[in-house]
Structure prediction request, 438 residues.
Amino acid sequence: MGENTLTITDNRTGKQYDLPIENGTIKAMDLRQIKQSEDDFGLMTYDPAFMNTASCKSRITFIDGDKGILEYRGYPIDQLAEKSTYLEVAYLLLNGELPDRAQLSDWTRNITYHTFINESIKKVIDGFHYNAHPMGMFEATLGALSTFYPDAKDIFDKECRQKQIYRLIAKVPTIAAFAYRHRIGMQYAYPDNDLSYEGNFLNMMFKTTELKYQPNAVLERALTVLFILHADHEQNCSTNAMRSIGSAHTDPFSSLAGAAAALYGPLHGGANEMVLRMLREIGSIDKVPEYIKRVKAGEFRLMGFGHRVYKNYDPRARIIKQVADEVFAVTGKDPLLDIALELERIALEDEYFVKRRLYPNVDFYSGIIYQAMSFPVDMFPVLFAIPRTSGWLAQWVELLEDPDQKIARPRQVYLGHRTREYVPIERRKAAESGAVGA
Ligand code: ACO
Prediction:
């Protein structure tokens, strides 16, 4: 019996099994040999929501939730946020190393070259109702893009794959900004390729009559930091969606549309939107204690609090708080910030939150910053999706190159009826038919 093994005794049969332990895991498939009889399917694990299941081996993002550590390819998030740019981080995530000057200039040029979208894509966006949610437009337009690039289906051709990566990272800000402009009934502002990735995004969002849009340097840098912080977060819900869809060898545009749909949910990327709505609903500092009381009574959750992985603090939240100060020095302070600070102060002292290890997550402050920068609330999940595109793509490439991976297909524990005779409609009674609610 080796040292790196786990010995399991099946008390149903008295048999013992030695399972190898590798990287702190046992292979779920090794449990299949544990059977009561020859025709037994074998033991499985039951793990809804993947609370304790590693679905892949990865070399992209490291998180230690207890220590509050987040690293991309080994580089601590605070160093990247302070010193890097979003495009450099995107390169790092996708290629594993920081680029040298020539590589960065090549990468930036290739992405800048692809910022324009086909004019017909504009018609897709035009087709949405005037009050369509920008995230709905964003994910649907991403799906539509797959029909414009049928070559993207060639996912095992590295050169072709690289082209789709340029296209996607380049075009997501354009689609996002066009969705916003459609929503407010303004003509689209085309990409300005003289500007930085973030500066150009601000241009496409906010340009009006000026001949050349000049982004505010502080706000441009704030956007860079926010984009870096949101670029990847290992196997979160939307990345898992990206990998799951990608495992069927779907093209990257359709896979990304699916990942964006997962991000849209209020428990994931929709949380910053919910934080802002919550702060507005609370309305003033004196209403905070009453609101906390209702959270504790289980009426609803405190949005922007809690995280599946971070149980001490979210390192991104700390960086974002600094960015908030810099942004407010330019835009003026948002009164909602005072409500947020009070909410955080009370919650961090309260036994309910302390006991459950609930701390502000990345979304608690990002929404207030985005609002101060004039982004409307329903653009928040889209602002999350733009930088996460590089993370989704990095994870997708890793999946495609991983020989261990196959089409994602979990098992289930079936607890329903077994084989029954079909009952003709005239002989059915609601109770007998097992109708919903019966
Ligand atoms: N407010 C109040 N109570 C909470 C909150 C919250 N925000 N989050 C968790 N809890 C409580 C739960 O009610 C539960 O209490 P119980 O043990 O008495 O039943 C306990 O804390 C554990 O909660 P779980 O749901 O098991 O925690 P999980 O790890 O599954 O959920 C999640 C993590 C989804 C982020 C959760 O904390 C939440 O809903 N937060 C609010 C939404 C949010 O901010 N999402 C953004 C996440 S960050 C991101 O996606 C970028």
Notes: The CA atoms of residues 417 and 434 lie 10 Å apart. The pocket of acetyl coenzyme *A is lined by residues 267-268, 271, 295, 301-308, 356, 358, 361-363 (CB under 6 Å). DSSP finds 17 helices and five strands in the chain.
